[in-house]
């Protein structure tokens, strides 16, 4: 039976065994035992195993020449030795084995394979190892921690490795920033595109059609879950599998992805990434150039998989489903992928303890009954045990909401005239609920305009308050930057004016009878949108199921509706 290799991926284990044979490595008569430490950082998808094998050859060569038997192997793949927030499991295990005297020597090819955090980390380890007689070996650097000047040499090299990492981090950051400004894509190509020699992207002949289908399905109203299931049922391979097969076809080694099918997270990433619209992205956000415009990463706008407007509309439709309109918190965790609820008042109705009501059903004597219950009670939490007939609550809330909406609109029209703030507010809510793409595009342009205005203000404060740009060259830079931002502001103002701003015809809401007829013909999702025109929240109090439903229900109206209802009550009194 072969000895266990410590936390080695199966592929690496096989290669090390084929190359060096089973553990232990070395003559059984050698008394001293050691461990080999191997590390690679930022492991790419096209990872080749040769680097760790070369490290192992170097370490094994030293062990043989010093009659040390290798009984343990530690390997950290895709692990930085510089970043403080990275946990290296095998590194920690190796140091622990030294402390416990399970091995005497821990062998690394070089100091920078062991640590890039400087003497702060290495010095602490050396202090601990002095008490137990453990030795760190760095083959290529010719250093043993128990040598006379080993600690001094190790201090110099560990600090050098730390400085190199900091310098590399800075250079890479500057390089990426420079390429972003030029629209050059430096990362792994995004799904749906191929990278050209100049760093610009163009459509992949096959993948772009798949990613385009993601967009069109979202625009058609499909949920993330429905899109993912559709691709899986059609046998369409996931983006990870496309890249994996691409590596194999090129004759390169590749790690097989853990997930080989489509998931809601995959669909969401493809849909929300700015590359969908051909925009440069950083941190999943589009990047702006010095002129305030988004930086394109495609050679031509026609190479983008979607237009900017299409991308914004698709995101708005999906985000409307997965976020609560008022709190901004994600909803739909229990149904998954933001799937709309199957019951009319879920999300609108609550118990007095602010627990939301969920729809449940039970069968008694062969007959099925539907009712709302507080989710806390169904989950075993302490609760007022609110329970109410679904039919009774639905009928009461719908009738009350439609009557309140009609009454509020009527008095607002009579007292304030047409186009009043109540009508406009209800129209805006209707657009947000039923036409999220319409409001999203206007909101995006308004956001860009606000950002440009903030930049102009900051420039003016720098010039006149902080006394920057004071020399002649500085004044030229100031005028150039300010003129660019003013031009951008003008373009955005004109674009905002060009966007359609028509309000929907909601005259059917003025008559409760007509609005009820329209309501009954609508889909469940549209019915919920109509209720939200008037209602913010429905609270159901505990009580006898035979008591009148209106005695148990408390409705909170939208501020504009509540204001008009107060006027009606005042007039009536």
Q: Give me the count of strands.
A: 15
Predict the CATH topology of the largest domain.
Answer: Rossmann fold
- The CATH class of the largest domain is Alpha Beta
Name the CATH homologous superfamily of the largest domain: Resolvase, N-terminal catalytic domain
Distance between the termini: 93 Å
In percent, how much strand structure appears in the residues?
Answer: 5-15%
Shape: extended
Computed CA radius of gyration, to the nearest angstrom: 33 Å
Briefly note the structural class of the backbone.
alpha/beta
Instruction: Outline the low-pLDDT stretches.
Output: 1-12, 43-48, 168-176, 323-339
CATH architecture classification of the largest domain:
3-Layer(aba) Sandwich
Largest sheet: 5 strands, mixed
How do the strands of the widest beta sheet line up side by side?
Answer: 2-1-3-4-5
Domains, number: 4
Average pLDDT level: 77
């Amino acid at each position: 039976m072969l000895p266990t290799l410590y936390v080695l991926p199966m592929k690496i284990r096989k290669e090390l065994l084929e190359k060096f044979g089973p553990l232990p490595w070395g003559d059984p008569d050698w008394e001293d035992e050691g461990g080999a430490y191997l590390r690679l950082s930022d492991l790419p998808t096209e990872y080749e195993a040769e680097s760790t094998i070369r490290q192992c050859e170097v370490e094994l060569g030293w062990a043989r020449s010093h009659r040390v038997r290798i009984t343990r192997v530690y390997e950290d793949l895709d692990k930085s030795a510089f970043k403080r927030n990275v946990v290296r499991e095998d590194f920690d295990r190796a140091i622990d084995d030294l402390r416990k005297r399970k091995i005497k020597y821990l062998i690394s090819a070089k100091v920078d394979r062991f640590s890039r955090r400087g003497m702060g980390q290495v010095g602490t380890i050396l202090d601990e190892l002095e008490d137990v007689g453990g030795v760190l070996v760095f083959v290529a650097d010719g250093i043993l921690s128990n040598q006379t000047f080993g600690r001094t040499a190790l201090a110099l090299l560990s600090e050098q490795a730390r400085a190199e990492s900091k310098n590399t981090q800075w250079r890479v950051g500057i390089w990426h920033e420079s390429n972003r400004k030029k629209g050059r894509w430096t990362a792994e190509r995004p799904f749906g595109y191929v990278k050209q020699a100049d760093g610009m992207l163009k459509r992949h002949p096959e993948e772009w059609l798949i990613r385009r289908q993601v967009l069109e399905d979202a625009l058609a109203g499909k949920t993330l879950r429905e899109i993912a299931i559709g691709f899986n049922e059609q046998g369409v391979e996931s983006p990870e599998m496309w890249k994996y097969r691409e590596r194999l076809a090129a004759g390169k080694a590749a790690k097989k992805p853990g997930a080989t099918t489509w998931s809601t997270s995959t669909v969401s990433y493809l849909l929300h990434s700015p590359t969908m619209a051909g925009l440069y992205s950083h941190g999943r956000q589009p990047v702006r150039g010095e002129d305030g415009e988004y930086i394109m990463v495609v050679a031509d706008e026609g190479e983008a998989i979607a237009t900017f407007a299409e991308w914004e509309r698709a995101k708005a439709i999906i985000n409307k489903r997965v976020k609560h309109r008022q709190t901004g918190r994600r909803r739909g965790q229990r149904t998954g992928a933001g799937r709309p609820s199957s019951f009319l008042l879920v999300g609108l109705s609550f118990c007095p303890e602010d627990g939301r009501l969920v729809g449940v059903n039970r069968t008694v004597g062969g007959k099925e009954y539907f009712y709302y219950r507080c989710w806390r009670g169904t989950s075993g939490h302490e609760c007022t045990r609110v329970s109410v007939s679904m039919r009774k609550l639905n009928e009461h809330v719908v009738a009350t909401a439609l009557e309140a909406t009609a009454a509020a609109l009527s008095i607002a029209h009579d007292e304030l005239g047409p186009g009043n703030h109540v009508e406009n507010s209800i129209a805006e809510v209707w657009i947000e609920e039923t036409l999220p793409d319409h409001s999203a595009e206007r909101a995006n342009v308004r956001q860009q305009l606000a950002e440009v205005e903030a930049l102009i203000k900051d420039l003016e404060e720098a010039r006149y308050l902080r006394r920057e740009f004071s020399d002649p060259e500085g004044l030229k830079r100031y005028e150039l930057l300010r003129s660019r931002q003013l031009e951008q502001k003008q373009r955005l103002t004109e674009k905002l004016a060009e966007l359609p701003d028509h309000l929907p015809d909601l005259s059917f809401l003025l008559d409760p009878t007509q609005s009820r007829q329209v309501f009954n013909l609508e889909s469940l999702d549209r019915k919920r949108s109509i209720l939200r025109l008037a209602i913010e929240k429905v609270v159901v109090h505990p009580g006898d199921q035979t008591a009148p439903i209106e005695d148990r229900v408390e409705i909170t109206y939208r501020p504009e509706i509540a204001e008009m209802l107060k006027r009606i009550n005042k007039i009536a009194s």
